[in-house]
Amino acid sequence: MTPGKAFLTTEEIRPLAERSDIMGGWLVLHCWGTIAAALALFGLWPNILTFALAVVVIGSRQLGLAILMHEAAHNALFRNRRLNDFVGEWLCGRPILAELAAYRHYHLTHHRFTQTEKDPDLVLSSKFPTTRASLKRKFIRDLTGQTGFKQLAAQVMMSVRLAGDHDAVETAASDFAQAFKARDLFKSLPIFIGVIILMGLVGNWWWGLTFWLLPYLTWFQFVLRVRNIAEHGATEVSENALQNVRTTLAGPVARLLVAPYWVNYHLEHHMVMHVPCWRLKAMHALLVDKGLSGRMRIAPSYWHAMVEAGWRTA
């Protein structure tokens, strides 16, 4: 049974689960439009502040593309299945070296066995709570590009190892810390490089390297880790749908830089996974109106989520 049916009626879930091709298209357009706006801002006023802002905003929108691919994995981005899969694959996944089919298979297993011994993501969340020193080391590795470079190198090696080995492809996802990474990298690499080239054509030759590769190797890795920690780090290892996952409240700045497209409402997503992301806030309000907020694991901010994960622990 869907966890949400223990707290919401079918009549309450049905309108929340309604998908919209118009809204799906708007979200994808908004994500790429925000990337274009960040580039335009730097192009119009090139200085260190607009440079840093562009890198951070584009890195957060790379996470946004991952989130929209996640929507497509749940068939929630568009009503039309073919459109859902095409856009999720080629406009959201491949530009960040991700693969929809691989992610869908892995991620649905995570939903089925959330925070149990069969959860493929348990290896990520079981590390928390940890110490502040450990978190700092992780964040420094992310922001300096060490994590991104290491994962990209591992992805290249995986693609080489899997070339022509169809049996190995079935188990490849377990070799990646982030399951959405494309196992057949060489199908995604031309799209990734194409974005770099396009940015270079729009601006100076170095724009693509600076405003696509650099954010991918740094800020994207950082916010991806923060999101992963906030969702399941230091939560209850059980089948309790109100405590084995965390919703993190996010203001405008957090939504811009860390948590785009309502990804912070993760508890609600686990309640009914096919509810589109843009309806999760309404679902959260409905659960609160039912008096469930005291039983739900909710962090007031991403800072509080990091504290729960061990930031204040020596």
TrEMBL record:
One Pfam annotation reads FA_desaturase
Q: Which residues form the Fatty acid desaturase domain?
A: 48-289
Q: Identify this protein by name.
A: Fatty acid desaturase family protein
GO molecular function list:
oxidoreductase activity
InterPro entries named among the record's database cross-references: FA_desaturase_dom, Fatty_acid_desaturase
Keyword Nuclease listed? no
Q: Which UniProt keywords apply?
A: Membrane, Oxidoreductase, Transmembrane, Transmembrane helix
Q: Does the keyword Oxidoreductase apply?
A: yes
Q: Which organism is it from?
A: Sedimentitalea xiamensis
Q: What is its EC number?
A: 1.14.19.-
Q: Where are the transmembrane segments?
A: 189-207
